[in-house]
Specification:
The chain has helices spanning 41-60, 64-67, 69-80, 82-93, 97-114, 117-120, 162-167, 182-191, 208-216, 229-241, 264-276, 298-308, 328-344, 398-406, 421-430, 466-472, 485-488; strands at residues 6-8, 11-13, 20-24, 31-36, 125-130, 133-141, 144-148, 171-175, 201-203, 220-226, 245-249, 254-258, 286-292, 347-350, 369-372, 389-395, 410-411, 413-417, 435-438, 454-455, 458-459, 474-482. It has 491 residues and is of the alpha/beta class. The protein has 2 domains: 6-250 and 457-479, Aldehyde Dehydrogenase, Chain A, domain 1; 254-438, Aldehyde Dehydrogenase, Chain A, domain 2 (3-Layer(aba) Sandwich). The strands form 6 sheets. Strands 14-15-16-13-12-18-19 form a 7-stranded mixed sheet, with helices on both faces. A 6-stranded mixed sheet has the order 9-8-7-10-11-21, with helices on both faces. It has a 3-stranded antiparallel sheet with strand order 5-6-22. Helix 7 (162-167) links the parallel strand 7 and strand 8. The longest helix has 20 residues, at 41-60. The termini are far apart.
Length: 491
């Protein structure tokens, strides 16, 4: 198979790196392509940054109303190619086609929101701060920006950043995950049609060599990242060391609290979707399910039945609700963590290990799993499994649940299921999490709002999406201006 090319300065280019690795379909283990991988991909990054630097100077001078016109065209193309892109996501990432379509719809929402840049870039003006002197703020682009994105949302996460960056007058370099590079390759074929000047948007492949080149290159001014907390800390520290502004989204261990007054049927369905959607491979997947006052085990039984009946298989097959995890290594890690949970004293209520799907026996499948009674002092309860595993925990009160959540090192999402407005108000006020859901299983913000995160789930101060993205991709310039009348009479 041919090795994927980079997209630099408005044209497709062969990588300087001669080494390559296979892109594997996680359901079939069939190779789908080859992607450049090795130390020489750092030279590709340098080429992309050089092109982006040249292009950005002229692009910044383009009026913002003109800068957003290519985004309108991109929105239309993404909608026209939705089915094709969704199938590519499913084949290289593993999620179901419905999940892939949902991911792309979120990407399109961000393109739409970035088209509002002419309004979002407006700033403050104060007349006569003292007699005859005015003061105002201008927002200007920061320069060349880059994103380093993960495998679990190959179509969406780039769009938390890309449309805002270019609408604000920056140029951009994308480094997709080497595990799922095909989706962004197809997206760039669409970007090539929307009329951007060469060099405004570039795509480079590779692994750690490419990442480090992005972090170290003096021409890159801002970096966006989504991935594990360990890598997010590395990105944030090394990027800051090299003088860049960084937004780095990390991992999670998302809790969901179920109160006795919650609607049982709706709650069990929504929570099950949250835990097992995308095979648990999303940073907003529910993980620790904290059940309050379930002495008769009604909630446990409802969750068990909902999880047990979930159909696992190849994401393009009819009726499939959950696909494989990304790799054989991920499957082995998840199953080892399930073993560890049992060793720590949890009861394996539902065992998804050693799954075999007819016709896809080689796939990386882990079926829905439930660990009941996970010890509060163990490792599993605080480890991001990133797979289809529910930890079911019984607690006496909502205060005990809040105490448990607020001692967690992560703070990406926390959700509450209840019919009590007072309980909801207390929870949303007191919980330490950046995204909060009330009777919502996946508190994913719409594009108009920032994708928040607290504690070890985020490093930086401005998040992706919405106004936060506009602020991240611009720098403010304060102008203080005086025009004395007597000066004007001289001319």
């Amino acid at each position: 198979m041919e090795v994927l090319q980079n997209y630099i300065n408005g044209r497709w280019q062969t990588s300087r790196e001669r080494g390559a690795i296979d892109v594997i379909n996680p359901a079939t283990q069939a190779p789908m392509g080859r992607v450049p991988y090795g130390k020489d991909t750092a030279a590709d990054v340098a080429d992309a940054v050089e092109a982006a630097g040249r292009a950005q100077v002229e692009w910044a001078a383009v009026p913002v109303m003109q800068r957003v016109q290519p985004l309108y065209r991109l929105k239309v193309l993404l909608e026209q190619h939705l089915e094709e892109l969704a199938e590519t996501i499913t084949n290289e990432c593993g999620k179901t086609k419905a999940e892939s379509i949902g991911e792309l719809q979120r990407a399109i929402e961000n393109v739409e929101t970035a088209c509002a840049a002419p309004m979002l870039l407006q700033s403050e003006f104060s007349e006569n701060i003292t007699r005859g002197i005015d003061e105002f703020v201008m927002r200007q682009p920061v320069g060349v920006c880059a994103c380093i994105v993960p495998f679990n949302f190959p179509g969406m996460i780039t769009f938390w950043f890309l449309p805002y960056a270019i609408a604000c007058g920056n140029s951009f370099v994308i480094k997709p995950s080497e595990k799922v590079p095909l989706t962004m390759q197809k997206v760039m074929q669409l970007v090539d049609q929307i009329g951007l000047p060469p060099g405004v948007v570039n795509l480079v492949h590779g692994g750690k060599a490419s990442v480090d080149a992005i972090l170290e290159h003096p021409g890159i001014k801002a970096i966006s990242f989504v991935g594990s907390t360990r890598v997010a800390q590395y990105i944030y520290a090394k990027g800051a060391q090299h003088g860049k502004r960084v937004q780095a989204q990390g991992g999670a261990k998302n809790p969901v609290v179920i109160l006795p007054d919650a609607d049982l049927e709706t709650t069990s369905r929504i929570v099950t979707d949250s835990v097992y959607g995308c095979a648990g491979q999303r940073c907003l997947a529910a993980s620790n399910i904290l059940v309050i006052g379930d002495g008769k085990g009604r909630v446990k039984e409802a969750l068990y039945e909902a999880a047990k009946g979930r159909k696992t298989g190849y994401g393009l097959s009819d009726g499939v609700e959950m696909g494989p995890v990304i790799s054989a290594e991920s499957k082995a890690r998840i199953e080892q963590l399930i073993d560890q949970g049992v060793h720590e004293g949890a009861n394996l209520l539902l065992d998804g290990r050693n799954a075999s799907i007819e016709g896809f026996e080689a796939g990386n499948f882990v079926k829905p799993t439930i660990l009941e009674g996970v010890p509060l002092g163990g490792e599993i309860i605080q480890t991001e499994i990133f797979g289809p595993v529910m930890s079911l925990i019984n607690l006496a009160t909502v205060d005990a649940a809040l105490d448990f959540i607020n001692r967690n090192r992560y703070g990406n999402m926390a959700c509450l299921f209840t019919s009590s407005g007072a309980s909801a108000r207390k929870f949303r006020s007191e919980v330490n999490a950046g995204n909060v859901g009330i009777n919502i299983g996946v508190a994913a913000p719409m594009a108009q709002f920032p994708f928040s995160g607290w504690n070890d789930s985020f490093f930086g101060d401005l998040h992706g999406q919405g106004r936060h993205a506009i602020e991240f991709f611009t720098q403010t310039k304060v102008v203080i201006e005086r025009w004395p009348k007597e000066w004007s009479r001289k001319f």
